[in-house]
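Shipment paperwork, digital attachment
Item: protein structure file
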Amino acid sequence: MDSGRLQPALVGGLFIGVLSALPLVNAGNCCCCMWVIAGGVLAAYLRQQNSPYAVTSAEGAFVGFLAGLVGGVAGTLLSIPVDIMMGPFQHRFLDWVATMNPDIPSELREMSERGIGPGAVAFKLVVGVVTGAVFGMIGGLLGVALFTKNKPARPDVPGRIDVLPPE
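Attachment content:
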């Protein structure tokens, strides 16, 4: 893979992963996957800055896609220690909610006592990678639209017209 794509994808993906794993900050993803789209925009911006040619929409979408994949994996891996640290606080909060509302079903109480298992982590990984890829691609397209520079087009782009036809 071209290293010009890899570095922006890694930076955008780490942006996505860190902000998606932090407690309270990760609520920004409830607003149309804000951190994921922002990571795709960041990846497209960095790709545009590192390229001597204008970045195409396909290139921006691809870099955003890669950033979303990296962000889904990074977010899941970073959320594991955060969930372990926040577990006692969440458990106390759920106990408080259970005492305030005695109508909570026993299945829900048992599920809250078990905590997060490997199945939940695997599900979180799959959901994070899929949504990261889709919304990262949207962010990459948005980044190309926002940060297009007046640079020459790549000479190897098929279908490129160098001279306008006569009128």
